[in-house]
Design goal:
- The chain is of the alpha/beta class.
- It has two domains: about 170 residues, 3-Layer(aba) Sandwich (Leucine Aminopeptidase, subunit E, domain 1); about 300 residues, 3-Layer(aba) Sandwich (Aminopeptidase).
- Helices cover about 35% and strands about 20% of the residues.
- It starts with 5 loop residues before the first strand and ends with a helix.
- Bound molecules: ligand BES, manganese (II) ion (MN) and zinc ion (ZN).
């Protein structure tokens, strides 16, 4: 199996024109009247090539636009890439993150093994240098990512590694920039790690192999420990939801529990992160149509977002106690599957009438949520590719967020702003919850045809008692990302969002 491209990042004190590199990257705004300093210096040495490009209208500086020029003997870089940032007044950290992603993606396409970024010099002092460098580092990891571990053909020398540096001629800035780069690499690499595991297919990632992966992560990460409940333990505990969903598959279910306990966080709140990991969702006896069913290997992505976030949180050494709770099961039709009409007794003791075996995510999450409550988490955030309805409602650019506590929801909205992983608040409870009541059990696992994301959330809310809780439905943002950031497959959504959330909890 091939290794994923190794992306590494650092910082260097050098002038852009003196920077020896395969690809030097500078940023420009649209509608700018003059060239910014770094660009102007380069333009002079390139004999006015940048100015000419702009004058001809071949480069407008709009967001996401790129153009590559070639170096000469007056500059040290082999190539210069212009990246558009759009209008200056509209630029956010996410603009820089995306621009860095574009640049790294292009570097991979050009097989440029070294990439030097002076992107940030265009924005001046608009942002804190540490936050800016973190966003750029995250972007580089995103854009430099390709999922090709199973392609055995040699593709005439795909890069083994991409070495990236953030360059600045001002020595005073370097300390903050390198701190940001360091944190951004941790988060970016955790996200790439998550994408790789999410991209692996159902015959490779089973509940057991996912548990092994979590154990491996914990064994090499300071402060992180891992325990795993197998079928026997799940039975002993009475985790009927996870067992029911897993009952149709030879690949038996697991509950994976990661625990991060840093030194010096004995007081403060305990955070519970819960993520749905259905390693393959065929729908079970209520089987899905065959078109695009392969996409359902991504139905483990919520659990993997939690895994990736736990990696980032621990490696950043955040001073907050965090549980990462990942119920893992494969939803398959067989003679041993759970069936429509079954009544399942969940870990909490609440009973659920199964009306559709394809509404399985909530059946594994309800046990995991109750487990989080029992661990005395002060707040619980779950994340899942839970409903097609959420995709219909919000499309592929925002996840849905629902919950029982407005304070926690605004914290998640803030984390979404910081991380660039967007959320949109949707309603739950009340009338939506009424739809989930059964005539023959406490609850049923589906509501009416309408508002499926909201009814699903309302179901989950019944398993958290009075604990502050929020639910993130990430179905759209994970599964339909094809073109947005280059390459196909998992977006790794949630790693940055959850890490930012825990980071913000620490600050308070
Ligand atoms: N994993 C799916 C949700 C999903 C669907 C994610 C499409 C991404 C794209 C989930 O388990 C599911 O099947 N949900 C059903 C629920 C329904 C049976 C109440 C759905 O949304 O159709
Ligand atoms: Mn399903
Ligand atoms: Zn599912």
């Amino acid at each position: 199996m091939k290794k994923i491209i190794d992306v590494s990042l650092k910082c260097r004190n050098v002038h852009a024109d003196k920077c020896k590199t395969d690809l030097l990257c500078v940023a420009l705004f649209s509608k700018a009247k003059t060239l910014e300093k770094t660009c102007e210096r380069l333009d002079k040495k390139l004999g006015g090539a940048i100015a000419k490009l702009i004058k001809l209208g071949d480069f407008k500086g709009s967001e996401g636009e790129i153009a590559v020029l070639y170096g000469n003997n007056k500059i040290s870089a082999k190539r210069v890439m212009l990246v558009g940032l759009g209008e200056k007044k509209k630029v956010t950290l996410d603009t820089l993150r995306s621009a860095a992603s574009k640049a790294a993606s292009k570097a991979v396409a050009l097989k440029a093994a070294t990439l030097s970024l002076a992107l940030h010099s265009a924005v001046g002092d608009k942002f804190d240098n540490e936050a800016l460098a973190q966003a750029i580092a995250e972007g580089v990891c995103i854009g430099g990512y390709r999922y090709d571990e199973y392609i055995t053909e040699s593709e005439n020398g795909r890069l083994g590694s991409l070495k990236v540096e953030l360059i600045d001629s001002n020595l005073a800035k370097l300390e903050k920039l390198s701190k940001g780069i360091k944190n951004g690499s941790v988060v970016g690499k955790a996200q790439s790690y998550a994408r790789t595991i999410a991209n692996r297919p159902g015959n490779v990632i089973t509940p057991a192999s996912l548990a092994a992966e979590a154990r491996k992560l914990a064994s090499r990460t300071k402060g992180l420990s891992c325990s795993v409940f197998d079928k026997k333990k799940l039975t002993a505990k009475g985790m009927g939801g996870i067992l029911a969903v897993g009952s149709g598959s030879k690949n038996e279910p697991r509950l994976i529990v990661l625990k991060y306990s840093p030194n010096g966080a004995a007081k403060g709140p305990v955070v519970g992160l819960v993520g749905k990991a259905v390693t393959f969702d065929s729908g079970g006896i209520s089987i899905k149509p065959s078109a695009n069913m392969d996409q359902m290997k991504f139905d483990k992505s919520g659990g993997i977002a939690v895994l990736g976030a736990m990696k980032a949180i621990a490696e950043l050494g955040l001073k907050v106690r965090v549980y990462g709770i990942i119920p893992a099961a494969e939803n398959m039709p067989s003679g041993t599957s759970y069936r429509p009409g079954d009544i399942v007794t969940t870990y909490s003791g609440k009973t659920v009438e199964i009306q559709n075996t394809d509404a399985e995510g909530r059946m594994i999450l309800c046990d995991a949520l109750h487990y989080a409550v029992k661990q005395k988490c002060d707040m619980i955030i779950d994340i899942a590719t839970l409903t097609g309805s959420c995709v219909v409602a919000l499309g592929k650019y925002s996840a849905g967020v629902m919950g029982n506590n407005d304070g926690l929801i605004s914290k998640i909205e803030q984390a979404a702003k910081d991380s660039g992983e967007k959320v949109w608040h949707l309603p739950s409870g009340g009338d939506y919850l009424e739809e989930m009541k059964s005539k023959i059990a406490d609850l049923k696992n589906i509501g009416s045809r309408w508002g499926g994301a909201c009814t699903a959330a309302s179901f989950l809310g019944e398993f958290v008692g009075k604990t502050k809780w929020a639910h993130i439905d990430m179905a759209g943002v994970e599964m339909f990302v094809e073109s947005k950031q280059g390459g196909v497959g998992s977006s790794g959504y949630g790693v940055r969002l959850l890490t930012s959330l825990v980071q913000n909890i620490k600050k308070k």
